[in-house]
Amino acid sequence: MGVAATVTGGPGGGSSLEALTALVGDDLQAVNAVIVSRMQSPVAMIPQLAGHVVAAGGKRLRPMLTLASAHLCGYRGRRHVGLAASVEFIHTATLLHDDVVDDSELRRGLASANAVWGNKASVLVGDFLFSRAFELMVEDGSLDVLRILSRASSVIAEGEVMQLMTANDTGTDQTAYLDVIRAKTAELFAAACEIGAVVADRPAADAAALQRYGSNFGMAFQLVDDVLDYSARQMTLGKTIGDDFREGKITLPVVLAFQRGDEDDRVFWRRTLEDLDQAPGDLDRAMELLKRHNALTDTMAMAREYGERAVAALSTLPPGAPRQIMGEVVDFCVERAF
Amino acid sequence: MGVAATVTGGPGGGSSLEALTALVGDDLQAVNAVIVSRMQSPVAMIPQLAGHVVAAGGKRLRPMLTLASAHLCGYRGRRHVGLAASVEFIHTATLLHDDVVDDSELRRGLASANAVWGNKASVLVGDFLFSRAFELMVEDGSLDVLRILSRASSVIAEGEVMQLMTANDTGTDQTAYLDVIRAKTAELFAAACEIGAVVADRPAADAAALQRYGSNFGMAFQLVDDVLDYSARQMTLGKTIGDDFREGKITLPVVLAFQRGDEDDRVFWRRTLEDLDQAPGDLDRAMELLKRHNALTDTMAMAREYGERAVAALSTLPPGAPRQIMGEVVDFCVERAF
Predict the structure, then answer these.
(1) What is the pTM of this model?
(2) Minimal CA–CA distance to B145: which of B206, B201, B91, B214?
(3) Which DSSP symbol is given to B316?
(4) Do B97 and A46 count as a contact with CB atoms less than 8 A apart?
(5) In this structure, is the dihedral angle defined by the CA atoms of residues B226, B227, B230 and B232, taken in order, positive or negative?
(6) Is 80 exceeded by the pLDDT of residue A262?
(7) What ipTM did this prediction achieve?
(8) Would you say domain A15-335 falls under CATH 1.10.600.10?
(9) Which residue of B has its CA nearest to A164?
(10) Between A125, A143, A150, which is nearest B161 by CB?
């Protein structure tokens, strides 16, 4: 499950993300400047490795959510910039640690940081960025923000361990899978949005609404990401498909296809995803089974449901361009699968 | 360099550590209770793996330093208990991440957590404990403590990366080596002591004095630890020697012996520590070279010097049993090598 997936717009689909980028405007440049300046260290390997990940790190969706949430809440100060950088540092540290490979596992085809610098360097630079995130929060000085993001960090780690325990286990059910992505993906989306209300000193109800928006958006985002790994749409964007399959990752499409399949199907899933015994043609068969059992369309339906909940959560917040754009970006992220 | 080394007393040598344990008394039991209660998680693998490390985690020297420092500063509250647990969580997370093995490296003979549960689980549970440490600090509510420990965490990560860059490099000089241990070991000792003054609300000069005490103690502690890995004394305690040698770790004894050796010696060190090409008898030869060049005695002399600076740093602080015992525990830790 590549949580690193970039949010790139396909033909005609990029307008809402562009609108979000326009909304946060110069603030995003300021966040990027903080990121670059605060990943520096006299220890040369740290900015080298961190730069590799940060440069490849997609469109800064999470920090943009912090900026947009603060904007929506009418915030006019500068604190959201450092905190958005802090959110991105936590995300980057998570990516680095998520890519650490056990001896028993396959390496990805792509040159992840651990493939270039080794597992240990990835772990330690992740630790550095994680610590730096907390230093940024301390400089900001809000114990409420520190509470939200330290809790989110614990929950993310729990989610990653849960994912490890369900990895390659075709017996994983939908509830267990949703628990994993709620912890490992949705929690940081939720925290990123919530702190926007905190810096703006808005009432708890607004912080809670933004938390719900982020959490549901994160669920939708991860479900779409899981679908994209098996989607022909992904290929038209020039990306590889089947990474999750090759790694034996159990995502919702697989959970649904496994449960709905017959014994032959289950033998296939166990061989390919549990034993990682894969032959040419297996990915095609997997995609055929996912299609036959409506696994991708049903996962997308669930993603849409979470997306609708995210947009609905915004309803109690002040109307205007920020709210409008934050709603549209959810729709865009959900529909990018098509 | 096993920073996890337990501080066990040899025959007749344990009195000062026992005095420290007696000084902190019930508070240490309270710290242990917080550690056990806060490493719990609905995700079963987390307490299992964390328990494995925490149970094997030595004598809780760092949290005892927080407790003793608070005591020395006349503190009578309970905040030092949670913060001492936080310090131990950071230390444990560091150990877990320090044990992550690259494909290219040797595994240790002992069953470290990563050998039992895998690299990835060790990384993620380390992340959980690290996040939990920050949650404990947030509950405490002191931004000064958060500042000290978030900075310490960044510096530790930098030190670990520096160590990685000097690993297996016989060209490492004394300055580079001391920079590594100052960051990876001394920084947390220093922070553990400093926060004792912060909770007691003492003037900045007292916090600085305890910071110096901890930093110099940490340097002495690590140097002794490096000596013990090649020390016959270690064998009489029933421990293995030569772990650092087998892993190709460059510690100060090796730095000195390499610099003082002739070309034959250097060929030997390069083969065994850089190429990790080791044969039976090599450890004996290494120990013989360390002895011939006074590498262990000179490292010990340096450890004593740092130890003396640590004790001297206490001089401006209130006299009494806590100060006396904190001085003696340094001497004990230095002399445990004999």
Answers:
(1) 0.92
(2) B201
(3) G
(4) no
(5) negative
(6) yes
(7) 0.91
(8) yes
(9) B121
(10) A125
